[in-house]
Amino acid sequence: MDMDHEFDIGPEDAAWRERAARFAADHVAPVARELDREARFSKDLVRAFGAAGLIGATVPEADGGGGASYLAGCLIAEELGAVDGSIRGFLAVQRGLVIQPFLDHAPPPHRERWLADLIAGEAIGACCLTEPEAGSDLGGMRTTIREDGDDVVIDGEKVWITNGNVADVLLVFGSVDPSLRTRGLECYLVPADTPGLRREPMPGQDLGHRASDHAHVVFEGVRVPRANRFGPAKGGYGVAMAGLGDGRLNVAAGAVGAHRACFEACQAFTRERRQFGKRIGDFQQVGAALADMYVSLTQSRLLVYHAARLADLGKDNAAVVSAAKLAATEAALDAAKQAIQLHGSRGYSDELPLERHYRDLVALTIYEGTSHIQRVILARHLLGKDEGPKE
Ligand SMILES: Cc1cc2nc3c(=O)[nH]c(=O)nc-3n(C[C@H](O)[C@H](O)[C@H](O)COP(=O)(O)OP(=O)(O)OC[C@H]3O[C@@H](n4cnc5c(N)ncnc54)[C@H](O)[C@@H]3O)c2cc1C
């Protein structure tokens, strides 16, 4: 099947896809299982990723990036996602939740200090939104931001922060007035060595994304200059939403990659494996499962590419991104479960990457807004504001 013909992908975007596929094959595939088994985050892999020009691929050339389209960004995430969820997850955070706010809002000195290093993979960033009592409900944040002369003082606690233990710089969200909920949020850049910042690995072993780093971060009287604020006063929610828009699209595209990997593995295996004297794919139930996997893969792909193309046209794509994240992550998770089933006991072992895709994909339906929350966002878009009963 000619993928480019099917999806109308031009040569420049295809070249980015090839570059990502090569990187995934040469650098990620050989170490993915070992890093997962050892639950080890690899800074070397991040540096290689940056050196290959893939972290900043979609950053404008004027800002030191590769100037690639959003569609190319999705193709990169897809290729990485086809091989490993942890490094693809790193990209969603570093590019979407950290570099995007830098591009949109960083005051010039911070931009000069950090942006090039973040793009090169020489510096690592983290984005601190989630708290023990505020996950989906960002307006319920309890981290406080208090002005003190030319500084602000941050007190609070964050959980599940990707890159939190290895980050050089953290973007920290908190509230200047909790009664204002999302309208009281602000975002501050906090270098990792700032006094009062403590971090530790999350307790327990994660189901998936084991080669990612997840931290519990505590802020006790953390003092940074007021000039470290990203975005306008009380404008933190907008900063978070712009970053999440980019991140969610990356997550959806990564899910397409994992889905594709599961589908292709099943296609090959159900052609080769024989039972009862036949290819197992020729049993109706197995063939139908393969067909369903292909249909849902194509649906996810079309939604993700559509969302990316809207962004490339400069159009608002928030609702389509939510639809793409919802559909692609849920469909990929179903496909991974089915892939394990179709491989029989082989699929149950990490000799094959299917069970790792399955474990990683569960998280894709949770972070950057759960599937429930994507439905909430979509319903809001579809219904619009309640104007009250008609006279
Ligand atoms: C691997 C991983 C990496 C992560 N990385 C980061 C990171 O880098 N930075 C960061 O800040 N956070 C990160 N998170 C946290 C993640 O964003 C949150 O876990 C997520 O937003 C959900 O919040 P919660 O876990 O508190 O669940 P809750 O918000 O408590 O939700 C619990 C359940 O209730 C449902 N629910 C909640 N509200 C509604 C509603 N209005 N309607 C319907 N259902 C609802 C949810 O969908 C969910 O099923 C990460 C999480 C994981 C697993």
What is the CATH topology descriptor of the largest domain?
Answer: Butyryl-CoA Dehydrogenase, subunit A, domain 3
| DSSP strand tally | 10
Oligomer: single chain
What is the gyration radius calculated from CA atoms?
21 Å
Give the biggest beta sheet.
4 strands, mixed
CATH architecture of the largest domain: Up-down Bundle
Mass-distribution shape: globular
Hetero groups: flavin-adenine dinucleotide
Helix-strand category: alpha+beta
* The CATH H-level homologous superfamily of the largest domain: Butyryl-CoA Dehydrogenase, subunit A, domain 3
Question: pLDDT below 50 for ≥5 consecutive residues: which ranges?
Answer: none
What do these coordinates show?
Helices cover 52% and strands 15% of the residues. With 391 residues, the chain is an alpha+beta fold. The chain has 3 domains: 3-120, Acyl-CoA dehydrogenase/oxidase, N-terminal domain (Butyryl-Coa Dehydrogenase, subunit A, domain 1, Orthogonal Bundle), CATH 1.10.540; 125-234, Butyryl-CoA Dehydrogenase, subunit A, domain 2; 238-383, Butyryl-CoA Dehydrogenase, subunit A, domain 3, CATH 1.20.140.10. A 4-stranded mixed sheet has the order 1-4-5-8. A 4-stranded antiparallel sheet has the order 2-3-7-6, with helices on one face. A two-stranded antiparallel ribbon has the order 9-10. The mean pLDDT is 96. Bound molecules: flavin-adenine dinucleotide. The site of flavin-adenine dinucleotide has 19 residues, from strand 1, strand 3 and helix 11.
